[in-house]
Every structure is written in C-alpha cells, then in structure tokens.
Design goal:
With 184 residues, the chain is an alpha+beta fold. It contains 9 helices and 8 strands. The chain folds into 2 domains: 2-43, no CATH class; 51-183, no CATH class. It has helices at residues 2-7, 12-15, 22-31, 51-59, 67-73, 127-137, 142-154, 159-169, 173-183; strands spanning 9-11, 35-38, 41-43, 64-65, 84-89, 99-104, 112-117, 120-125. The strands form 3 sheets. It has a 3-stranded antiparallel beta sheet, with helices on both faces. A 3-stranded mixed beta sheet has the order 4-5-6. A two-stranded antiparallel ribbon has the order 7-8. The model has no long low-confidence stretch (mean pLDDT 83).
Length: 184
C-alpha cells in the first residue's frame, strides 16, 4: 500500500478511504503487508519497533516523548521500551495500548524540542530535561547514573538549563553532575 509506505502509520479510518474492508486489512496483517499496532492503527512493516514515537507524532501532535523512551532515543539509556512514554496536558486523555500516558501540568512541560525521527518531526524533551526525567524515575539508581555518565561523555553540559529544570521539577541533577565532575 503506497500511502502507508509513505506515511508509515495510519489509523483505520484513513485506510478505509482506500476502500479496504476489515477482512482485507486482516489478511494484509496476516500476510505481513501491514502491521496492526492495536486499536485501529496500522504501520508499514519497514518501520522499526519505535513506531509508537511516529504514531505519537502523527496522531497526537501535542504529545511529548518522555521518560525512558526519550532516554533511549538520546542514547542515554539502553533500557527496554515496551510502551512509548508520552506526556500530555492534564486536561486530555489518551487511551492506546502503545503508550504509557503521563498527564502533566503545563508548568512542568518545559524543555520541549523537535527532533527528526524516521522522517517525522517528533516532540521530545531536550537532553537536559530528559536527564531530569531520569532522576525523577530513579533518583539514586542505575538508570539515572548511567544516563548522567553518558550525558557527560556525549554532551557539553548546559548548567543553566539543568539548574532551571532542577527548580521547576524539584530534582537534584546539578548537584549530582557536579559530584560526578569532582570524582573524575
């Protein structure tokens, strides 16, 4: 299906415009021509397992990739991602088996940037904000310290951003970053 190959991800209501029945979609899924992502969303088989990030960008343009998903995209972690983490406004609600949905206050949705990912511009927190997410997930554990060490190896630390995010999110990343520098 040419449109699906170009768009990578389509909800069933868009696919039905091509006059395909549910039975045809089911046969195409079984034969491997398309991949069912659940709840009426299909992808082209050429797309990688992180297809949920593309789904979020395409179907939920206000969603922001966050938590472990953002850490993995930035290569700050190698954790397994079963569901794509997204942050949305507290007033919204999304029900989709592809996502771990976090309803977040507008004041905490800071550091949002856009990144080109599989041909789509996705909303994701910047590296420094993502590092603060790692702290919130695992304040004194392996996920945070691995992310911090990888961040220091691959990036020039932006102290101002980290300090700002520490205040907004009530994290202590800057303190740990300085300690890591002192130990090195």
């Amino acid at each position: 299906m040419v449109a699906l190959k170009r768009l990578k991800v389509m909800p069933s209501h868009e696919i039905h415009k091509f006059q395909l029945s549910r039975a045809t979609l089911s046969r195409m899924n079984v034969s491997g021509e398309i991949v069912s992502l659940g709840r009426g969303i299909y992808s082209h088989p050429s797309i990688d397992p992180f297809v949920g990030a593309v789904v979020a960008a395409r179907l939920y343009p206000d969603a922001i990739l966050s938590n472990i998903t953002a850490l993995v995209i930035y290569k700050l972690s190698d954790e397994r991602v079963d569901k794509i983490d997204i942050d949305i406004d507290r007033a919204r609600s999304i029900r989709n088996d592809l996502f771990n949905v976090h309803r977040v206050a507008k004041s905490k949705r800071v550091g949002v940037t856009r990144l080109l990912f599989h041909g789509f511009r996705i909303k994701i927190y910047d590296k420094e904000r993502t590092l603060c997410e790692a702290y919130r997930i695992d304040p004194a554990g392996a996920i945070f310290f691995k992310a911090l060490k990888r961040y220091l190896k691959t990036s020039s630390p932006d102290i101002e951003k980290i300090s700002k995010y520490d205040q907004i999110l009530r994290t202590q990343v800057l303190r740990h970053l300085r300690q890591e520098w002192a130990d090195a």
